[in-house]
Design brief:
Elements lengths: L8 E4 L4 H12 L4 E4 L9 H11 L3 E4 L13 H22 L3 E6 L22 H16 L3 E6 L2 E2 L6 H11 L2 E5 L3 E2 L2 E2 H17 L9 E4 L6 E2 H14 L8 E5 L19 H7 L6 H9 L1
Parallel strand pairs: 1-2, 1-3, 3-4, 4-5, 5-10, 6-9, 7-12
Antiparallel strand pairs: 8-11
Helix pairs in contact: 1-6, 2-3, 3-4, 5-7, 7-9
This protein binds NADPH dihydro-nicotinamide-adenine-dinucleotide phosphate (NDP) and dtdp-4-keto-L-rhamnose.
The site of NADPH dihydro-nicotinamide-adenine-dinucleotide phosphate (NDP) has 27 residues, from helix 1, helix 3 and strand 4.
Length: 298
């Protein structure tokens, strides 16, 4: 029997929030990888990607590239579609052509938010805005064109990198004494470093069971263990930041209704994700976001 290829992961969107966490983790775990930022190659550039996959002997693709500006997507639907739907479609075709797994990242915003218990992978989708709509179309393109795929839906991602709610709150705490934050939208904050670890764990397990019937493909949810409102998340951030001396005084955070904070895109009222299936199939526990928050601020 011939030796299987050593694992070599291709990461797209390498300069994004999750992309940078993936780069850190791959380095720490000493896993062979190639990082691709938008400057290196657009995910729609099939010719460049095809050559790269062949030349480097890529064994799996992790797609962390996306259009993530939720409000701006309402006025730039074409651009959002190009990155969130056409890009994943191009990657799915490459996954099929080279017979390598595609690990793609999607969002809780594919749901309409009308449930009152955690969303499972089999629940009906119904995005409330363009961002969610284009992300859902990307999921559908992948499931139509690839067979070896993992679609990991995550939520409310925060980290030391890029733009995210955690960093916005820390900035606002330095600028203002009082903030209004919506208290009637619920979800699961997720640390991007934990998502990176989860994706790498899945890629490794798929690699070691390559071709075997152990491989479990399809849609998985991966998010924080505990659900909160954006207001609750803001309070948790300020509590830790104050405790660790990152901010000298805690701003007053008023709990407001969604109507009191008008935005171009409508967001789901409840997009809590159950991460149980991933824990069961891959042994990856949900993100302990409060611990991650503490670590980040320390
Ligand atoms: N952030 C969040 O709260 C959540 C994110 N997700 C999903 O997680 C994934 C990672 O998100 P996150 O890291 O936060 O996103 P970021 O916006 O931080 O990173 C996305 C990266 O993709 C790059 N990119 C955009 N268009 C292209 C393109 N056409 N070709 C190649 N690269 C491109 C961007 O480059 P540039 O900077 O130059 O635009 C950016 O570096 C995404 O799939 C997102 O939908 C899911 C739930 C929550
Ligand atoms: C900054 C701010 C926001 N908000 C509200 C607006 C909104 O309802 C909620 C979150 O605001 P943001 O715009 O920062 O977060 P948003 O861009 O909606 O975050 C989403 O990003 C995409 C990429 C995802 O996939 C989602 O899982 C989710 O993380 O908080 C306040 O109420 N007060 C504030 O001061």
């Amino acid at each position: 029997m011939s030796e299987p290829h050593a694992m070599h992961l291709l990461v797209t969107g390498a300069n994004g929030q999750l992309g940078q966490c993936l780069a850190d983790q791959l380095r720490v775990q000493n896993i062979t990888h190639t990082l691709l930022s938008r400057e290196d190659a657009d995910i729609n550039d099939t010719v460049v990607l095809e050559k790269l996959i062949a030349d480097k002997g890529i064994t799996a693709i992790i797609n962390a590239a996306a259009y993530t500006a939720v409000d701006r997507a309402e006025s730039e639907p074409g651009l959002a579609k190009r990155v969130n739907e056409d890009g994943p479609l191009a990657l799915a075709k490459l996954s099929a052509r080279f017979d390598i797994p595609l690990l793609h990242v999607s969002t809780d915003y594919v749901f309409d938010g009308t449930k009152i218990t955690p969303y499972e992978e089999s629940d009906a989708t119904g995005p409330t805005g363009m961002y969610g709509q284009t992300k859902l179309a990307g999921e559908q393109a992948i499931s139509r064109h690839a067979t070896k795929y993992i679609i990991m839906r995550t939520a409310w991602v925060f980290s030391e990198y890029g733009n995210n709610f955690f960093k916005t709150m820390l900035r606002l705490a330095k600028e203002r004494d009082t903030l209004g934050v919506v208290a009637d939208q619920f979800g699961c904050p997720t640390y991007a470093g934990d998502i990176a670890k989860a994706l790498i764990a899945i890629a490794s397990q798929l690699h070691s069971s390559a071709g075997g019937n152990e491989a479990r493909y399809g849609i998985y949810h991966y998010a924080g263990v505990e659900a909160v409102s954006w207001h609750g998340f803001a309070e948790a951030i300020f509590e830790q930041a104050h405790k660790q001396g990152v901010i000298t005084r805690r701003p007053t955070v008023n709990a407001i209704a969604t109507d009191a904070y008008p935005t171009p895109a409508k967001r789901p009222t409840y997009s809590v994700l159950s991460s149980a299936k991933l824990a069961q199939d891959y042994g990856v526990p949900a993100s302990e976001w409060r611990l991650a928050l503490e670590g980040l601020l320390r």
